[in-house]
């Protein structure tokens, strides 16, 4: 079976590396991409090139994608071959729609409102529905901290670019921790959850995902709601749901219709990776029930950090083969793993020191 991937970045690379028993075709406009050194066919064309999209779907039995910002208009004629499905892709693109979609399945977000004009702020304040500070986010686009900021007063809302953007605002949640639910559903409705990481961000970018416990930290009510969503929406493949946790209550943050950065630890930490299960699911094969084999921590390598060495047997480094090192851009990651929790924490401390050392 031949699988098409829209996008030739690091997620595509890891999907391909997970499944040497599968043939792949990648659609990617950048000639210098993360899949260049892999033995796959690459169609070098824009993502909205109808001829290239036609060729990809003609060559492949099934097509998936590694990012959300793909035009619905170029995919609508091929929706039967696309996984995860087009509806889930579309609803994930806009934060307001995404939160209402999650809410309709009982996944409660923090308080949020749509903002189109300055008067919307004034109205919310008059009705005592918000108080500052609030989190401002563009309704679409934005990732790794881009497209969002903290507003501390009404005065800061006056000069926002309302002409070219619409926004949502969220109340500030002083959460205890963040977590993510990585889950795979097969075409035969097998649904398996991966062990849940605790995630830390720096400057809006994921820094660390840590899994030191086999027990799923997300309660069964949330798991059942996600199962119901996946089944009713007929979502096939590996996807992710992010949550803030405060006083043991789970608040939906966002979802990703694809494999996810917080699931990279599964490459070394589990008996099956999120990438392998995704390929198994979309090619209509039996998916594997994930088990935590090693206690694990994943750390993203940003910018020049990709050049640093981690010479330890229980630290694996993954280079995304980007053509240019860019500050604050994800260039790779490391997985720290061991059966022994103390060894993981010891090596996490060593890795952190290497990353902090500017002369390394």
Describe the structure.
With 360 residues, the protein is of the alpha+beta class. The protein folds into three domains: 2-82, Rossmann fold (3-Layer(aba) Sandwich), CATH 3.40.50; 111-171, 2-Layer Sandwich (Dna Ligase, domain 1); 177-356, D-amino Acid Aminotransferase, Chain A, domain 1. It has helices spanning 10-18, 50-59, 72-75, 86-93, 95-104, 118-126, 220-232, 266-269, 274-282, 341-356; strands at residues 2-6, 23-27, 41-43, 62-65, 112-115, 134-138, 148-151, 167-171, 177-185, 191-193, 198-202, 205-211, 237-246, 249-256, 295-302, 315-319, 330-338. The strands form three sheets. Strands 9, 10, 11, 12, 13, 14, 15, 16 and 17 form a nine-stranded antiparallel beta sheet that branches. Helix 1 (10-18) crosses helix 9 (274-282). The longest helix is centred in the last third of the chain and has 16 residues, at 341-356.
Which helices and strands appear, and what pairs or packs with what?
Elements: E1 2-6, H1 10-18, E2 23-27, E3 41-43, H2 50-59, E4 62-65, H3 72-75, H4 86-93, H5 95-104, E5 112-115, H6 118-126, E6 134-138, E7 148-151, E8 167-171, E9 177-185, E10 191-193, E11 198-202, E12 205-211, H7 220-232, E13 237-246, E14 249-256, H8 266-269, H9 274-282, E15 295-302, E16 315-319, E17 330-338, H10 341-356
Parallel strand pairs: 1-2, 1-4, 2-3
Antiparallel strand pairs: 5-8, 6-7, 6-8, 9-10, 9-11, 9-13, 11-12, 12-15, 13-14, 15-17, 16-17
The protein's oligomeric status is: single chain
Write down the secondary-structure element order. Answer: EHEEHEHHHEHEEEEEEEHEEHHEEEH
> How far is the N terminus from the C terminus?
45 Å
The backbone outline, from C-alpha atoms, is: globular
β-strand number:
17
- Number of discrete helical segments: 10
CATH second-level architecture of the largest domain: 2-Layer Sandwich
Q: What is the helix content?
A: 25-40%
CATH topology of the largest domain: D-amino Acid Aminotransferase, Chain A, domain 1
The chain-level mean pLDDT equals 95
GO molecular function, one term: metal ion binding
Pathway: Purine metabolism
InterPro entries: ATP-grasp, ATP-grasp_carboxylate-amine, ATP_grasp_subdomain_1, PreATP-grasp_dom_sf, PurK_C, PurT/PurK_preATP-grasp, Rudment_hybrid_motif
Protein name: 5-(Carboxyamino)imidazole ribonucleotide synthase
